[in-house]
Amino acid sequence: MSTGTEGLVSGNPGPRSWRVKIERRLEQPRWLMWISPIILILAALAVGAVLLSIVGVDPRLAYSRIFSAAFGTPAGWLRGEIYPLSDTTVKATPLILTGVGVALAFRMRMWNIGAEGQLFIGAWATTGVALHLLSPETSPWIMIPAMMLAGFLGGALYGAIPGVLKAWLNVNEIITTLMLNYVAIFFNNYFIYGPWALRGFGLSPRFPRNAWLPRLMDLSDRFPIFRGLTAHLGILFGVAAVVVVWYILKYTKWGYEIRVIGDNPEAARYAGMNLKRNIVLVMMVSGGLAGLAGMSELSGVVHLLQERFSPGYGFTAIIIAWLAKLNPWGVILVSYLFGGLLVGGDQIQPFGIVQMLNGIILFVVIGGELLLQYRVRILRPERIVERAAEASGS
Amino acid sequence: MESSAKVDVPAVDMRGIVKRFPGVLANDHVDLTVYEGEVHALLGENGAGKSTLMNILSGLYQPDEGEIRVRGERVSFGSPKDAIRQGIGMIHQHFMLVPSFSVAENIMLGMDEPRFLLDPQKIEGTVRELSERYNLDVDPSSKIWQLSVGEQQRVEVLKMLYRGATILIMDEPTAVLTPQEVEDLFQTLRGMAKSGHTIIFISHKLDEVLAIADRITVLRRGRLEAAGVEASSVTKKELAHLMVGREVLFRIEKKPAKAGEVVMEVEDLQAEDDKGLPALKGVSLQVRSGEILGLAGVAGNGQRELAQAICGLRPVMGGVVRVHGKEVTNAAPVVLIKEGVAYIPEDRHGVGSVPNLSVAENLALRNYRWPPIGNGWRINRVALRKQAVELVQTFDIVTPSIDTPSRLLSGGNLQKMILARELSGDPRVVIAVHPTRGLDVGATEAVHRLLLQERDQGAGVLLISEDLDEILSLADRIAVIYEGQIMSVVDAEDADIEELGLQMAGTRVGAGAEKGEA
Ligand SMILES: Nc1ncnc2c1ncn2[C@@H]1O[C@H](COP(=O)(O)OP(=O)(O)OP(=O)(O)O)[C@@H](O)[C@H]1O
Ligand SMILES: [Mg+2]
């Protein structure tokens, strides 16, 4: 048993000097919650800068290149060059849609990491409608909504599978959603190399013009400034999805149930909430948004189904949802950041810097989150001096 | 050095402790002096700051001001690990054990010593030895989920002893124990005190405090109200006065019941417990409007299962549940809520509240479906907040604001929040399981009044409690449950404490049983 003199080292003040103490925060203050992602991203960039200079790249140059590629330069803006922003918007669009869907599921502690697969199935269903179900002459006013519906439903039904398995058989959704990603990708490959293949190329035929989402450049007759800009209507789907999810969570019974179930399922059951139904519903909406992302990507950017139309948007969505603290509005911000990194990545040498930065951001953010749960207190020396005096005196 | 020789150096000396939380001054220059080998009780209303003060002493929180000395040495703890190195260990209001682990594994958990190599045999041996020495009967190899609450508590005590705790803090240890378990615990505590351990003990049960404590410190609203009073020199009434600052009656005025038709009944009800063993073996009870039926019994005899089976939270294997004559056996919980059945669960953290949601949102858990809060598929947040403001006031819930997450409420205030939610909707049937567990004397009185008020407004109340005094002072009829069977049902006037006590222990008594059939 302890005699009272041993083990004093850690609990006891050290020599007579200022002492720094690290202690756990009980509560994260609100201001910290909001600015912590910014601090963390800046910290990540700082770490990245060190690594860049080690490999002999001037970090200032690299960052300004990435930034100007992603968001433009003030001088450029004055000249009316907004194409960097447009490019970044194109990349941010699928990230927002998948990110907000993932965030919704995470709110209920349904760990849907299957957004990538849901996005592929959404894209597949979209292609089916655009190429096979409707004739190429169908008016865009029918074509586009039909494709949206198909994309959403495809993702929703695909999301429903792990939902049902979880709700009725209590199968862990992390495993099922992860596995279903691969199933979806293979399913897709079967179609683009098989029945839907264009001369066995791993590509579907191009969508008819009426199945394309309008892009800014389509308006360049009236607004010359939009010439060549590829940002498309999908970004509005993204913003609308954010508004809807935010509204659901805050102002609807269903959102209230999602938050209660996410925090304490026992209490939810006790309050008479239907857990099974909610699990399936949340997975469907989450999957549906990912499916819609697939639709918007095909209809707005690629205009055909191919093997690698997504560089892993559905996986990045997990990081985005997390960085955004599962806040729908935060998803927009973080998606633009990652979209910018994707765009900037194409512009700078050596290739791979952006992947490295991505990795560093993830690493610093996860580590930093933990650190921010602690606070540093600095103890003034006189308290300690007083104690030292007592210890020697009495 | 000389500190150990001198007897009058306190084991623990806390001076001028201040702890602020956003919106609350939980401890306002509090002093606490505890001597070696004594049992020191810490008293105070709900939210007075008792748990906070002890969390500071055990290294979980850091004080904003003030100093702590342990055996004369100034200390400052960064974490509970620092505190345990000084021999200070705390057992919390809700236990911190891993249900799927064995007793020995739980005791090992979080220890620095054997990092990778676990030697279960050796640990079990040591644990066994400790449990014999201190009369803490528990099998080191059984899993936590198999243990009763009392046994789990023994595991917590063993855990602390194993880590070399000589100063043991217990936050409301008796709130969840049966009378027999309380007796056992006190035996242990006395033994420990005799062998030089120091015990700090938080409780709201004044009789217990007077029975076990050597000295008593009382807090009120974060301030020191009485410091280290000799337990032999105060009465229960004086203590209550110190705690709440006014006279407490310990008796409640109650009008005779005007019992009406049967509002809730169970017939030959059968259900299983969590382990799949029969917990209810044919229970039949009737609750009429305007009366309180007290269900007495030692915890673990089927009370929890009965409440859950009625409310649709546990499958009924046989028998019938009726509310207002309508059969609701195995109905979804929402059906019972719609029928106006209020349920105050015994587990307020695990079941009764949603920790990270605000107090306002917790208060809406029952009625978010209906106007004024539910509005079609939407939630009216203005109405939700308005309700919260009203309930916080009416039920006297101490909280920094209605937006505070409910996990930050003190134990007693959390219970008040649940009561406010369940009783505010004008329920027609109230099922209250240990409704005053963990409440201070003042709040207990308030809850008793509320239950009586519900009764007088025509609700039928099923009061499940192991506190015989509570049942005797509130119930109009009293039933006794033992091993999943009803031993008897008697009118409160005819109740005989001795008989009830015997029945709670499983002895059938002629007169009582006869009435029970009626
Ligand atoms: N981590 C926290 N953050 C914010 N407020 C807190 C926190 N912990 C406690 N409080 C508040 O501090 C006050 C004192 O709480 P404490 O838990 O110490 O009371 P208590 O005396 O143990 O009461 P009870 O008898 O109800 O358990 C309460 O008003 C409580 O809401
Ligand atoms: Mg407490």
Descriptive account of the structure:
The complex is a heterodimer of chains A (394) and B (518). Chain A is mainly alpha-helical and 394 residues long. Chain A has 2 domains: 103 residues, no CATH class; 254 residues, no CATH class. In chain A, 68% of the residues lie in helices and 3% in strands. In chain A, helix 5 packs across helix 13 and helix 9 packs antiparallel against helix 12. Chain B has 518 residues and is of the alpha/beta class. Chain B has 4 domains: 171 residues, P-loop containing nucleotide triphosphate hydrolases (Rossmann fold, 3-Layer(aba) Sandwich); 71 residues, no CATH class; 176 residues, 3-Layer(aba) Sandwich (Rossmann fold), CATH 3.40.50.300; 80 residues, no CATH class. In chain B, a hairpin with a 2-residue loop joins strand 9 and strand 10. Chain B starts with a helix and ends with a helix. The interface between A and B is large, with 41 and 53 residues. The structure holds adenosine-5'-triphosphate (ATP) and magnesium ion. Adenosine-5'-triphosphate (ATP) binds next to strand 2, helix 2 and helix 15 of chain B.
